[in-house]
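Researcher: Please translate sequence to structure tokens.
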Amino acid sequence: MSYTHKLVSEALTNTNNEPPIDHPAIQFAGEVALALRIKVHPKSQNSFWLYRDDCPYMLGWVGYGDFRQGGDGTEMYVVHSRKIDNGKYADYNDQHYMKMSVNLDAAVRNAKRYLRIYSPQELANINANEVARGLSEVKSDANDKLREAQSKVIDVREYGTDRGSRLLVELRHLLTTNYEFRDPQFSYDLQAYFDAKDEHTRLSHRSVPMWFVRVYERFGRQAFDVVSIDKAENYSPDFGETSHFNDETLPTEIMEKLSVLNILSDKQFVDDVGYRAGEGMFYVVR
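Model: Translation complete:
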């Protein structure tokens, strides 16, 4: 499996698991928390999540036990992080993201090396596929509407095309004149077809630039990290540099669209506005 990014808010709801009071994972997690000035939360009977209040996702977790595939029971100190690339395992294995050591000091050093706060670009990338999927669904809806509208006015083999049809050219012209159709419903259906065709053409050729916006509190006031995305319709978009704003310097265009996204539910996409990922993370159409 690929790396799973765990929201802090979700992990903190787990209060059922906690290592015994004398478990080595407790000392390990405590030393890591002290060294990195971060917080811990029980993950299982032998592991702890590690997090910061200013980051929406867990930095990773540490534990003590035999976490290897087909292990022989030998227990070790383990650091789990998105920054670890353990080549002994394929990236669909959880162990691919683990660093293991029998020595506590070495394990703490591993934690200090690999447990890192997420950059704005990393945060932007986590939900980028959901944004691209939302844009793709808008295109798909336009395709469906065009197919339905076309079926009511003319039978052609390939929807969305007129193959240079002289008939359709003349029909479009009639709609712009005072011509009175014998069948009023046909006039309505014909107009709906051309509207759907024009919208289909527009969506088929558009590129959607966006901003990824992270909203959080800093020194008692709202702060905004803004990352530009040139082609959000791509499932692997490129991310620009990060710009930093407060509630007085944030551009009006972003602020206005954030006000709309704020009233949406998490994981909801609105075309020409953006996507609310949750936890103070938004994708805003430019």
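Researcher: Any highlights?
Model: The chain has three domains: 8-118, 135-205, 207-285.
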